[in-house]
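Each field is listed here:
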Amino acid sequence: MTTPSGKRGIGRWLIPLLGVSALFAAPLGWWIQTWTPGEPPARLAAIDVAESFKRTPQLTQVSDRGVLRVATLIEPTLYIPDSYRPQGLEYDLTGRFAERLGVEVEYVVVPSIDAAYEAVAENRVDLAAAGLAIDPVRQERFVFSPPYLTVSRKLIHAADLPTPADLADIAGLTVAVPAGSASQAWLERIGKQADAVPVTIEERQDKLAILEGIRRGDIDYALTLSHTALLAHKLTDEVVVGPIVGPPVSLAWAFSREADDSLLRAARRFFAEVRSDQRLRALVDRHYAQFERLDESLSRRFLRDLETRARPYLRTFRRAGERYEIDWRLLASVGYQESKWRPDAVSHQGAYGLMQIVLPTARDLGLSNPSNPTANIMAGAKYIDQLRDLVPVEATEPDRTYLALAAYNVGIGHLNDALELTKRQGADPTQWAHVRERLPQLSDPAIYREMRYGYARGSETVNYVENIRAFHDLMIWVATREDLLAARQ
């Protein structure tokens, strides 16, 4: 079921240098340098698990140690060990949990799902937070926290193959799954049923190996979770996302059954709190919502332009970020959204340069030559910094910057209208996710006629900010593979 060459358009796999492998493979290299199987650090050495917890409850051990040890995997949707600030939903959740416990976090990066569970079983870590699905088979040895995210299983396949309606359409074929995953266990479980669809299960090390297998042409169909399928589809036209297969999947943290339940009880309280006050929803939104909105062709063009067009300006973005305490990659993402990194860009509204600054604003910022890319970038960063000061002081990061970016696009007056509308409707004007829902209403005559600054194309502003958020994450992931600031040879 492959092309005659055995390859599926390798040239179309994003671009040769910045493909899916660039986003996933580099973290694997980072892991190789930091984790040596069979040689754990002395203070993480395995001990008699059951006896340990009989003597001292697990929560007390964590408190006495002052460190919560967490096994995780490096993936864009889970954990990225970024040099500026680590990223990922598991990073944010475990960090907040540790803060609640009054301890630090140590992330123990493991190479596979099986390794994450074994690190818990051997007491080298206190819990595993690695995008693990609650699995009946694993529940014999492990106990899971309350779920923090519910996703689905999806069939994905190479673009030159037909999209099946369900598993029955690929009866007799091979389906690849990550080794040790709940998806593998589910396929094996249903395969024992009398009316089972006959498929051959092929184990691959991880999601990277599956995506690379599709690229090389030696995997036809695979089963993966929906958030991973979404990311792959946004980044390459080599992967087609097919139907949902099987029941929903709940992701949770894993704890050892040999331990007492003191740490697990604390985790249950933590999830109850972050779910009740909407913090969990906000974190999930932070890591996934922007990719649901991002146009596939735009994401692929961004990665191509990052390699071919951005490099002359990245060091200036870094200097501007350091001066105004803004992640330089976020500034670069603003520049891409504004001008596609073209220093000579001029809009029909009279905005100039990389950061598309209009002349009245340029005068206020002291920008005398908007066509100078260095001066334009510095002025754009300065303007974003000024806008952050105009956002309600109660807003915290990253919402504060997201709201400032909305003002950069639509104007501070219209943003204030959106904040007021958000407040009137009983939502939180300090959270971008809440304001995002109200901005499009500023084009509704029944609404904007009652607002101080009137009509605004709020939907465009929402897309503007969401694109920047997605570009920012893409830059972070690419930066795990290479030094974007390095001089080209």
